[in-house]
Each structure stands twice: as C-alpha cells, then as structure tokens.
Specification:
- One of its GO terms (cellular component) is nucleus.
- InterPro entries: DBL_dom_sf, DH_dom, Ephexin-like, GDS_CDC24_CS, PH-like_dom_sf.
- This is ARHG5 factor.
- One of its GO terms (molecular function) is guanyl-nucleotide exchange factor activity.
- It comes from Trogon melanurus (Black-tailed trogon).
- The chain is α+β, with helices and mostly antiparallel strands.
- A 3-stranded antiparallel beta sheet has the order 1-2-3.
- The longest helix is centred in the middle third of the chain and has 39 residues.
- α2 runs antiparallel to α3.
- The chain folds into 2 domains: about 90 residues, Dbl Homology Domain, Chain A (Up-down Bundle), CATH 1.20.900; about 40 residues.
- The two termini are about 30 Å apart.
Length: about 150
C-alpha cells in the first residue's frame, strides 16, 4: 500500500485480460485450492480401488502424504497470520519503556478485545464512578493491558 509504483503496476496487471480481472490474492491462493482438489481426487480413487490391492496401498500412501502436506500448509498459514497480527499490534502499541519485545517466534495472539474499566473515587463523600476503555491482549504466554492514547 505504501509503494505507489507497485500499486500502479499491480492495477495494470490485474486489469489485463490475460489475468481475467483476477486479483493478486486469487493467484496466490490457487496452489492451496489445487492441493485440496487433489485430496478430493484421491478420496474418489480410494473409493474405486479394490481393497487390499497394490493400487489401494499406493493411493493410501499418496493420500497420507497429501494430508501431511495440507496440515503443514495450514500450520504455516496460521503462523504467518499470527506474526502479521503481532507486527500490526506492535505498530499500534507504544510502550513507556521498550523492555517487552512483542514480536516473538513462539508468541501468538489468542484473544483481544475492549473492556470498560470502572474507577471508584473514595475521596468524596459520595461514591463517584468513572469509566475508561482498556484493551486486553491475551497471548499464549502473557496478558497485556493497554489503554487508548489520550
């Protein structure tokens, strides 16, 4: 998004009839779609092979290898999404002191959301309740509380 030259070239390529007006994302997702289609194909082959035959053994081995490949792909996609979330969050959060490295290979964001903190003032004779928004970021190894910049 920050590189105007790249954006112009990308728009020109995506509008080209050869690309059939498909976006870059659609081309990037194609290999994953093919892998899942291969899985369906192998399932159909397994249904039609004779039980106990050499073809069934080979098709089962191919299916198991494909299952492992799909599992690895999904895990890598999840890892990349998690890293992207951490990068985005590290750009949004400002620490008073930089002793907490937010981006880590082993860290992943589990859940985040906004809550309302209630502050009770005990200085006045009547209880006064004030509210302010706070954000909770639950990671697999810690909990981070943040508040909007004033």
């Amino acid at each position: 998004n920050g590189n105007a030259g790249f954006q112009q070239v990308l728009e020109r390529l995506e509008s080209d009839p050869v690309c059939q007006r498909l976006s870059l994302k659609s081309f990037l997702i194609l290999p994953f779609q093919r892998i899942t289609r291969l899985k369906l194909l192998l399932q159909n082959i397994l249904k039609r092979t004779r039980p106990g035959s050499e073809e069934e053994v080979q098709a089962t081995q191919a299916y198991d290898a494909l299952e492992k490949l799909i599992k690895d792909c999904n895990e890598n996609v999840q890892r990349m999404k998690s890293t992207e979330e951490l990068i985005y969050l590290s750009q949004k959060i400002e620490f008073e002191c930089k002793i907490f490295p937010l981006i880590s290979q082993s860290r992943r964001l589990v859940k985040c959301g906004e809550l309302t903190a209630l502050d009770y003032s005990t200085l006045s004779p009547k209880w006064k309740v004030t509210t302010r928004p706070i954000y909770l970021h639950l990671f697999n190894d810690c909990l981070l509380l943040s508040r909007p910049k004033e």
